[in-house]
Amino acid sequence: MLYFPSFTSLITRTLMTKTTTLLSATVLAMLGLVAMTFVSVVPSANAQTLVGLTDLESGDLIRGESYSAVYYYGLDGFRYVFPNDKTYFTWYEDFDDVKWISDGDLADIQIGGNVTYKPGVKMIKINSDPTVYVIGEGGEIMGIPSEEVAEDLYGSTWNQQIDDVPDGFFSNYTMGSDLEMASQYDPDAEEADAFSIDADKGLQMYLTVSIQDNSYSPSTLELDAGRAVRFVNDGDTKHTASADDGSWGTGTLNPGENFTRYFDEEDSYDFHCAYHDSMTGTLIVE
User: For the whole model, what pTM was predicted?
Assistant: First the structure.
């Protein structure tokens, strides 16, 4: 196995400037950790032009007015956190396409998790473990068995293409089988297949349940396990979608508000409105 007990990254990002230093702390309830994001952004001439939520498209890079952390807006309607600048620059060269939205709109977009390194671009290791890994689809990592294999994959400068990932973010990655030979991994093919963060994470468009003032539409929805469902209050009064067994719920949604949740386990999920007992619905996850 390839080890780097005292490896220090030799790469300096010339794209980074001293114009604005961004420090953001984003509480990741789903992941049980705090993501500290240090990124430098050069403000553009259109920095104060705000984009509305309805104008956002999947794949957009977004940030708020007051907090300068940059997020990826996913196909599933969630925003995804870049843990640090090194992760960001495996996917993008600069910040030119970042869209500014209001702080209120940013808060309305739920956090879906962290972005992992783009496959094929870099090798990684963590501070507390000298093992060096290549990165595959969806953040799967595979140990490299030797310097010879590393050189076959990344050339004579392979030892300058390894980044340290903070221990706290190592749980974002999943452990795959260690490589035995270079032919088991193709950096160029891996990078080409990860043409977007949506593709790398396997994100799909969310399904919608419209909450009206006396019913859900549809009242019964069939979906595959691992899909996200967005509950949208299209009525004129407050509503909820609350699990009959109390295991999940949207919380109170005022008119125009929404809540999105993934349903990963096959089951039948019955739900109701906490304010209107006659409103019931069912999700059939297969």
Answer: 0.82
Instruction: Name the token pair of 106.
Output: 């940013």
The answer for residues whose C-beta is within 8 angstroms of residue 129's C-beta and 6 or more apart is none
DSSP string across 132-154: EEEE-GGGEEEE---HHHHHHHH
- DSSP assignment of 93-108 equals S-STTEEE--HHHHHH
Q: Decide if 24 contacts 63 (C-beta within 8 A).
A: no
- Token pair 């294999």 is found at 149
Helices vs. strands in the chain: H and E counts, helices first:
5, 20
Q: Confirm if 283 and 262 have CB atoms less than 8 A apart.
A: no
User: Is 46 a residue whose pLDDT tops 80?
Assistant: no
Place of tokens 């993934």: 262
- In a 3-state reduction of DSSP, which class is residue 26? strand
**Residue that is written with structure tokens 């870099």 in the block:** 122
Alpha carbon distance 279, 109 (integer Å): 26
CA distance 21 to 42: 9
How many whole angstroms separate alpha carbon 138 and alpha carbon 256? 33
Over 50: is that where the pLDDT of 265 sits?
yes
